[in-house]
Amino acid sequence: MIKPLKKKNVYLDHAATTPMDKSVYQEMMPYFSNKYGNPSALYNLGRQALLDINNARTKIANLLHCQPDNIIFTGSGTEADNLAILGLAKQYEIYGKHIISLAIEHHAVLKPLEELKQSGFEITYIKTNKQGIVNPIDVINAIRPDTILISIMYANNEIGSIQPLGEIGKGIIKYRKENQTNFPYFHSDACQATGFLNLDVEKNHLDLMTINGSKVYGPKGIGLLYYRRGLKLKPLIFGGGQEKKLRSGTENVAYICGLAKALELAEVEKIKESSRQRKLNQYFWQCLQATVQDIHINGPEIGDLRLPNNLNVSFRGIEGEAMLLYLDEYGIMCSTGSACTSESLEPSHVLKAINLSYEDAHASLRFTTGKHTKKSDIDYVIKYLPFIINKLREISPSYKPNIYDKK
Ligand SMILES: *Cc1c(COP(=O)(O)O)cnc(C)c1O
User: Fold this and answer.
1) Is 54 exposed, middle or buried (0-12, 13-18, 19+ CB in 10 A)?
2) How far is CA 272 from CA 265, 275, 324, 377, in A?
3) Best of 101, 191, 197, 348 to mutate for ligand 1, by most ligand atoms within 8 A of CB?
4) Which of 33, 128, 338, 392 has its CA 20 to 30 A from that of 320?
């Protein structure tokens, strides 16, 4: 294989995590040195830390259009999802043990749901269409008198499909009115949506929403859960009673302030970056189609129903994992349909749920751009990727050309 003359690093895995923004880093620095006080302490150094946490909370509340005391900081997006689902289920199980969700959710949602199933809960997973988008009517029709929670992700991490939260929320409110009940509550995992979509919890009629720092140029290992006033949750972690007794443990002041900074930045850059990255991915997709045959896009067409930074493509006859390693040789970083469970041969649960064949799922690559991705980065990929694909296809025993073209 030809090696690039001048190898550069092209990071196209922003759905896995983003580099931290410099200004976020600067915001966090003081807390690793002189601002080390414990927010629970009564002297000035501690009071200042508490003040800084609550400033961060207020800034974020303004972005989400909620009250500051309806935000709980957690140790990750995963923890916030667990607190939403397990915390709510434990609090309200006497009212019913039925939950509605999607098969394409992140494992941070699917695993706690499986856990609840062990303790007698029934989970209904609504099918999406081939693009990975759920029909709001299907969600509302699945509500039963014992449904206490509906958990639907805002945007999918693998195929970028965006769910119609606002419409689902409207349907839920209508159901509650007609049946004079507070149930079901409505949760959304918004980790992938944070940098691109509207985070107003009222607009989407959400009772709970998960966000993390790792996907929006903030630090990894920090998340938050918004929960509606009046809604009660049972804690998963017990101890000193921090975060209104919902999440004990000394607050991670640096990361909390970093998360607030990251979210403020994201809000400023959202519109510009959404349109810029959508165009970039449109360009990328057009170049791929022009240079490689037998490929197809997984998830919605590039447009309003798809995250602007996501391009998930199956390259017929190619093993995604092999391709990933070849691309790495060229400094190109992306992921494949078996990224999260790479020890197993099972393809991604998301690609399976949208009815992709075993081969197509294994032949998939996910490219996710970020705010530092330039057109020259895409040009670099296009310079080498088609060549690698063709080489791999030549030695692939199963590859027969033009499978998609014949359809
Ligand atoms: C990354 C991600 C998570 C997990 O967040 P962590 O902060 O890594 O725990 C949950 N849901 C979605 C949709 C994600 O993309």
Assistant:
1) middle
2) 12, 6, 30, 19
3) 191
4) 128
Quick one: which H or E segment has residue 208? strand 208-212
Indicate which residue's Cα is closest to atom 2 of ligand 1.
191
Q: Which residues contact 372 (CB under 8 A, 6 or more apart)?
A: 11, 19
In the set 191, 257, 334, 340, the catalytic residue is 340
Picking from 146, 162, 149, the residue whose alpha carbon sits closest to that of residue 100 is: 149
Residue 329 exposure: Cα atoms within 13 Å on the Cβ side: 13
| Residue nearest to ligand 1 atom 6, measured at CA | 77
Residue with tokens 């045959």: 293
Please state the atom number of ligand 1 nearest to the C-alpha of residue 79: 9
Could you give the CA distance from residue 18 to residue 217 in angstroms, rounded to a whole number?
A: 5
d(CA 288, CA 312): 12
Q: State how far Cα 187 lies from the chain centre.
A: 14
Residue of 14, 73, 78 to test ligand 1 pocket, by largest number of atoms within 8 Å of CB = 78
**Are the beta carbons of 382 and 292 closer than 8 angstroms?**
no
- The pTM score is 0.95
Instruction: Walk along the chain (407 residues) and give the pLDDT tens digit of each residue.
Output: 566 666 899 999 999 999 999 999 999 999 999 999 999 999 999 999 999 999 999 999 999 999 999 999 999 999 999 999 999 999 999 999 999 999 999 999 999 999 999 999 999 999 999 999 999 999 999 999 999 999 999 999 999 999 999 999 999 999 999 999 999 999 999 999 999 999 999 999 999 999 999 999 999 999 999 999 999 999 999 999 999 999 999 999 999 999 999 999 999 999 999 999 999 999 999 999 999 999 999 999 999 999 999 999 999 999 999 999 999 999 999 999 864 444 567 889 999 999 999 989 999 999 999 999 999 999 999 999 999 999 899 887 778 776 555 44
Alpha-carbon distances of 300 from 132, 133, 369, rounded to whole Å: 7, 8, 17
Amino acid letter, residue 33: S
